[in-house]
Amino acid sequence: MNWLENLLIIGGISFDVFTAMESQGSLVAKITKKELILSSLLACAWQAIAFGVGYVLSAILMRQNRIAANDQMIGTGIAISIFAGLGAHLLLKAIQREKFDERRAEGFDRQKIFQGFFGCSVYTLLAGIAFGFVSPSDVALCLAMIAAMSVLAVVAGVYTGYHFGMKQRRRAYALGAALLWMVGADLLVKLVLL
Q1: 121 burial type by CB count under 10 A (0-12 exposed, 13-18 middle, 19+ buried)
Q2: 121, 47 in Cβ contact below 8 A?
Q3: Contact, 115 vs 37, CB < 8 A?
């Protein structure tokens, strides 16, 4: 996979982080730099660990099931299925009407942030598994991209929520789904052309 496909994957899963932080931004009376920096660092670490665990799991699965590194058909098929499923789940989240308790707070609700990041890490874990099946060599580049996109998603989510409330949640989920489906479609085209 090339850097653009990696960016689309990481961008797609980062929209879940964006929406988790958008809800926090919509509730706070004032955004403090300390909480923003701590949330960004937590998102970076959490997402990088989840991606790395997913990547290692794919290596273990490939070794145990004796899927050869050159047998791209099986690995690509699994990756396409994962990206299609993640995109479908994000689209379902965009359609659902979630109820939010919109009361102003003095600071971020750390418990909600942990819960949000835990949910986001499932997407990242699955994306790491898919990445390991398709492109097992660019891990360092992807981890750097995850760190950058996590910080961007946290900051953009908090400020979007602070200024506009939860109005962008559906668009963010739909855009994340579209990005993941684009990567899945690209992998499918490459698989057919092989």
Answers
A1: buried
A2: yes
A3: no
DSSP 80: H
Rounded CA separation 111/117 (Å): 10
Q: In sequence order, what are the residues at sequence separation of 6 or more whose Cβ sits closer than 8 angstroms to the Cβ of residue 118?
A: 46
How many residues does this entry show for the chain? 194
Q: With the CA atoms of 116, 22, 168 and 178 taken in that order, what torsion angle do they form, in degrees rounded to the nearest 10?
A: -40
Question: What 3-state class would DSSP assign to 105?
Answer: strand
Inter-residue contact 151 to 40 (CB < 8 Å): yes
- The 10s digit of each residue's pLDDT in 55-91 is 999 888 877 766 655 566 777 888 899 999 999 999 9
The DSSP element (H or E) to which 66 belongs, if any, is: none
Of 52, 54, 53, 42, residue with least CA distance to 151: 42
Say if CB 160 and CB 22 are below 8 A apart: yes
pLDDT in tens, 84-143: 999 999 999 888 877 666 666 676 777 777 788 888 888 899 999 988 888 766 788 888
The model carries a pTM of 0.85
